[in-house]
Amino acid sequence: MTRKKHGSLSSFVAASCCLIAIALSAASPALARSIEVNGVWYILAGTDRAFVTNRNFADEAEGPYTGDVVVPEQITYRGRTYSVISVASNAFACCEGLTSVSLPSTLRSINTCAFIGCTNLKQVTMPTTRLTVSSCAFTGCTSLQKITLPRLTERLDSLTFYCCASLRTLVLPHRLSTICQGALEHLPLLTNLYCFASEPPEAEQGAFSMADQQNCTLHVPRETLQQYKASPVWNKFYRIVALSDNDYLAQGYQRGDVNDDGQVDADDLNLLRRILVSLPDDSAVRWAADINGDGTINAVDYVMFAGQLKQQ
Q1: pLDDT tens-digit readout, 47-89
Q2: Is-contact 243 223, C-beta < 8 A?
Q3: pLDDT band per the 50, 70, 90 thresholds, residue 261
Q4: Are the C-beta atoms of residues 176 and 153 closer than 8 Å to each other?
Q5: Which residues pair with 37 in a beta bridge?
Q6: Which CATH topology does 7-249 take?
Q7: Which of these, 16, 136, 291, 311, is most buried using a 10 Å CB contact count?
């Protein structure tokens, strides 16, 4: 199967991104003065919160961020500590020299057009906690090759990863329920899409490019494999296969961590007891509760788990 050329489309979209972001920035007056701490610019909100921003965006064709940027969980300014909770709209827009960014566990939102037009951005490290990613957040990031969304993400807004022309691997979390128009459109090199959602998320018309789907393998929970194969939009993928144990482990899921808090403890055992009475709809929870990995959840799993905890 031959891939279609996408260079001209990617170049056009990348060039257009900065014009869009500049127009949006000019139309939105600054709400507060930005300050700089260790090479990163912030807007301070209240007495304890900070938003990552871009001081000179309205005045420059390219933003100030280059190379590898690490955003900390906290900053200190004039003796006061602020928690970094958001990447503001257009914060990294058109920073063509930006190659990677690491975002902190305290982050709760990536706002509209935050990374639009970052044509050399290759890697984004996101927190695994609840995080809202707004529309056009990564539009035109034509060098981005792999990204894993936070586990509690429930929605992909329109054009989130539109024309990320080098994106080869994308991981969608188990809480995802909606993919909006254009969110995953024009990804000509996408080879593997991992979707941990128990039910096929609602995909709006144009959420994917059909041509891209024909080049991509979709990995989904084993117990709902047939639902994906029968679901509109999802059934257009070239190949649909079941997620393996290694796929779950690669994303940090653990046998026994039933409540997905990163620890295996008595809280998980109590939750497993309730699961034995009423199986949950969440495939990731079911996978974690299947302690012996035999495909069923029953008293054997409970006894094994209780024994493991006693030995700790």
Answers
A1: 899 999 986 544 444 457 999 999 999 999 999 999 999 999 9
A2: no
A3: confident
A4: yes
A5: 40
A6: 3.80.10
A7: 136
- The conformation of residue 208, written as its DSSP 8-state character, comes to B
Assigned token pair, 16:
């257009």
Q: Nearest Cα to 168, choosing from 151, 150, 149, 143?
A: 143
Q: If DSSP codes are grouped into helix, strand and coil, which group holds residue 17?
A: helix
H or E stretch covering 30: none
* Residue-wise pLDDT tens digits, 90-112: 999 999 999 999 999 999 999 99
What interhelical angle do 299-311 and 266-277 show, nearest 10? 170
Q: Which helix (H) or strand (E) holds 7?
A: helix 7-27
Q: Which fold has domain 254-311?
A: Type 1 dockerin domain (1.10.1330)
Cα 15 to Cα 43, 65, 139, 166, 251, distances in angstroms? 27, 18, 11, 16, 34
Q: Which two tokens stand for residue 269?
A: 């055992």
Dist CA 42 CA 31 (whole Å): 12
Let me know how long the chain is: 312
Secondary structure E strands in the chain? 34-37, 40-45, 49-53, 67-70, 74-77, 80-87, 98-102, 109-110, 123-125, 132-133, 146-148, 155-156, 169-172, 178-179, 192-195, 202-203, 217-220, 239-242
Please name the amino acid found at residue 274: R
Each residue's pLDDT tens digit, 187-239 = 999 999 999 999 999 999 899 999 999 999 999 999 999 999 999 999 999 99
Does residue 90 contact residue 114 with C-beta atoms inside 8 Å? yes
Contact residues for 53 (Cβ-Cβ < 8 A; gap 6+): 34, 41, 42, 43, 88, 91
